[in-house]
Design a protein that fits this description.
This protein is α+β, with helices and mostly antiparallel strands. The protein has six helices and two strands.
C-alpha cells in the first residue's frame, strides 16, 4: 500500500473481467479509499456501475467504492460496438475478398 500511495496515477484496467473474492474486493476498496482525494485514478470497465456488485460481491462495499470514485470523476461512457470486434470483423471481410465498396452494396 505504501508503494501504491507514492504513485501519481493508478490505473485499474478491465475491472469486472473476473469477479473478485471477498479479500480482493476489500483490498481494491482500500486502494481506492487511500487514493481518494490524494491521487489520480483511471478505471476501465465494460460494466455499468449497477453491475459492479457482480464483481465485488457486496452491495455496501460497491456503493462506498463508487461513491468515492464518482465524487470528483470525469466519466467517459462509450456505447456501440467494440473496436476490437470491429477490427476482427473487418479482417474477416477483407480475408473473404470483400472491401468496403462490396460491403456497402450488400
Amino acid at each position: 500500500m505504501d508503494s501504491l500511495g507514492k504513485a501519481d496515477l493508478l490505473i485499474i484496467d478491465e475491472l469486472g473481467f473476473v469477479p473478485l473474492h471477498r479479500s480482493g474486493a476489500e483490498l481494491l476498496f482500500n486502494v481506492v479509499a487511500q487514493a481518494y482525494e490524494c491521487q489520480s485514478l483511471i478505471i476501465t470497465s465494460n460494466l455499468k456501475f449497477g453491475e459492479w456488485n457482480s464483481v465485488l460481491g457486496d452491495n455496501r462495499l460497491t456503493a462506498a467504492l463508487i461513491d468515492r470514485l464518482v465524487q470528483h470523476a470525469h466519466i467517459l461512457a462509450f456505447d456501440g460496438q467494440s473496436r476490437r470486434l470491429s477490427q476482427a470483423l473487418s479482417g474477416l471481410k477483407n480475408a473473404n475478398g470483400l472491401d468496403e465498396r462490396d460491403e456497402e452494396r450488400t
